[in-house]
Specification:
By secondary structure, the chain is mainly beta. It has one domain. 7% of the residues lie in helices and 46% in strands. Strands 1, 3, 4, 7, 8, 9, 14, 15, 19, 20 and 24 form an 11-stranded antiparallel sheet that branches. About 21% of the residues have low confidence.
């Protein structure tokens, strides 16, 4: 505390989380498809997606075997509070250093997908996918934010809160300059990935403005009836791109081979597969935009007894990527338009790659909610949701994995909690 009206708080933190999955198969005496490794995943009459559905019980190892990751977060923030009379001002900053050290390449032991049970009995694999030389990656990102918030008691019964938050990142970078990503030219994934310090050709998260506004009104001035509301813009910083980029050539190349006999599945780690193999690309949009939510809420609170209150409210939000990106979807994936939706194409837009198609799915647009409390808080909720076109891009599991991911708005963000915490500080 600096004075009775001025308070400064500073916090420093470190957290670490890790994960590993061995995925070993309790089978002995059966040689694997990769020298020294156990048998990989087997899928029959199913998709070529990771651990895809199979007409009979799957066998072999999980495609995520031998995966591990460790994430370090170094965080510091500083808040200053100043109050005088009917006004309170809060300002602050937040910094976070992200270190993600991963080995998340899938199909290290291989996955054999058989089209039918008959081809399985004959030993003919429809699609075999393998990462012959998995490589651990070290991803780094620096995140920052600053905010300013002003709370004014306009009248004894009406309070207005206005704030502005700005967020920024330096992109998604690899510690040894091994960030690989596929460029997109005229809507087509290029055959050879671009390698450099950053996986993003354009950093669109240098300046992300987030204005917020909220109010509270004591309707009768007796503290029993209140109306609260707010609206704000929230960005979801992209700090989890490592999973998709950990499966990108040339350091974690996923090779796909069509129509091969089981007897020919004999590979050595680090040795390239036969020339008939094609790369199954995995990437993110090189100029990826940060997803955002516009969130709004309005609720009425009424005390009906000393220990009972009734609250009825509405919480809505709209998650979106920019319009310029929606135009890019069609070109990149080779999609056709059929009515209001986008459907996957059946032709690879780059025949040099094992799969270069994707599809678009729908996301939530809004929810409504009401709440009833009495004594111990009890909630009764009613909700509805609507979809809007082009809110999310999903990966494809039709023609081999991995695939392309372009954006993923956080359409399930708890909007109500934000209105309680204040417009700008979070």
């Amino acid at each position: 505390m600096i004075s009775t009206s001025l308070l400064n708080t500073a916090r420093f933190g470190y957290s670490r989380g890790s994960y590993f999955f061995t995925g070993l198969v309790p089978v002995t005496g059966v040689p694997g498809w990769v020298s020294g490794d156990p048998v990989g995943a087997i899928v029959i009459s199913g998709s070529t997606a990771s651990n895809g559905a199979s007409s009979i019980t799957g066998a072999g190892a999980n495609v995520g075997s031998n995966n591990r990751t460790a994430r370090n977060l170094f965080t510091e923030d500083d808040h200053v509070y100043w109050s005088k009379g009917r006004q309170q001002i809060e300002a602050g900053g937040w910094l976070q250093r992200v270190q993600a050290n991963d080995l998340l390449a899938q199909n290290q032991y291989g996955q054999a997908s058989f089209s039918t049970e008959q081809t399985f009995l004959k030993g003919t694999v429809a699609t075999f996918t393998l990462v012959p030389a998995p490589t651990a990656m070290g991803w780094r990102s620096f995140l920052g934010a600053g905010f300013f918030e002003d709370t004014i008691k306009v009248t004894p019964r009406f309070e207005l809160r206005a704030g502005f938050r700005s967020e920024s990142t330096n992109g998604w970078n690899e510690s040894q300059g091994r960030a690989a990503n596929y460029a997109i030219v005229n809507g087509v994934l290029q055959t050879t990935p671009v390698v450099g310090n950053s996986a993003l050709s354009t950093n669109r998260a240098r300046f992300l403005p987030n204005p917020r506004l909220g109010f509270a009104w004591d309707v009768r001035g007796n503290g029993k009836t209140a109306i609260r509301g707010g609206i704000g813009l929230y960005h979801g910083l992209l700090d989890t791109l490592d999973y998709r980029l950990d499966q990108t050539a040339p350091f974690n190349t996923a090779e796909s081979i069509k129509t091969i006999a089981v007897s020919s599945l004999n590979f050595t780690a680090g040795v390239p597969p036969p020339s008939t193999a094609k790369v199954s690309p995995s990437n993110v949009q090189p100029n990826l935009s940060t997803p955002a939510d516009i969130t709004w809420s309005l609720r009425i609170e009424q005390q009906v007894a000393p220990n009972t209150s009734l609250t009825v409210g509405y919480v809505g939000f709209h998650a979106y990527p920019p319009d310029s990106f929606r135009g890019h979807e069609r070109a990149h994936a080779g999609l056709r338009v059929d009515g209001p939706g986008l459907l996957p194409s059946t032709t690879d837009v780059n025949p040099n790659l094992a799969n270069s198609t994707s599809w678009v799915s729908q996301g939530r647009a809004c929810i409504t909610r009401s709440r009833l409390t009495r004594g111990t808080p009890t909630r009764t909720a009613f909700s509805s949701e609507a979809t809007t076109h082009g809110q999310r891009i999903s990966t494809t599991a039709r023609r081999g994995t991995p695939a392309s991911v372009e954006t993923h708005p956080r359409s399930s963000r708890p909007a109500e909690s934000k209105s309680r915490l204040g417009p700008a500080r979070h």
